[in-house]
Amino acid sequence: MEKWQVQLGALAVGSVVAYFTLGRRKRNMRSLANRLGFQFIGDDLPATFQMDCYPMSEIKKAWNVIEGTRKGSQVVIFDSVIGSGNGRYCTAIACHTTENPFTLNYGSEVVVQSNGWTALYQLRFIQVPGTITVSRLEDLVGLV
Predict the structure, then answer these.
(1) How far apart are alpha carbons 49 and 51 in whole angstroms?
(2) Per-residue pLDDT averaged across 49-60, rounded?
(3) CA neighbor of 44 nearest in space, from 83, 84, 87, 78
(4) Left, alpha or beta for 55 (phi > 0: left; psi -120 to 50: alpha)?
(5) 42 closest CA partner among 94, 78, 92, 95
(6) DSSP secondary structure letter of residue 126
(7) Contact present, 82 and 90 (Cβ < 8 Å)
(8) Mean pLDDT for the chain?
């Protein structure tokens, strides 16, 4: 078998896996929105979500956007690509509050604050979307 055939086969398998993984993530995020009583928006961040700090200021594309209210505060959850070039995958949960509700974060999760919003995010080292699991996102909403 030629080298290019192996490469083409690996690319095809990778594409199929990515397609099904992204579809499963979308279904799981829709289910999360339903369980929380939030709205699954899709690909558009709400206009009220305004943060001017890294990485939120460098969002190139967002998807699986969920929006709702928890204890009187607006909450936005989303997957995204940030940065220049190909960018990096990032999952974030943001709450419209100046107080940090995300005090129990794991080592690779980072909290940033800007314009009255507090966001917890996680960047992905390997380019695979969905950096924070749906169950972890549900736990984080419980902290808000």
Answers:
(1) 7
(2) 92
(3) 78
(4) alpha
(5) 78
(6) S
(7) yes
(8) 83
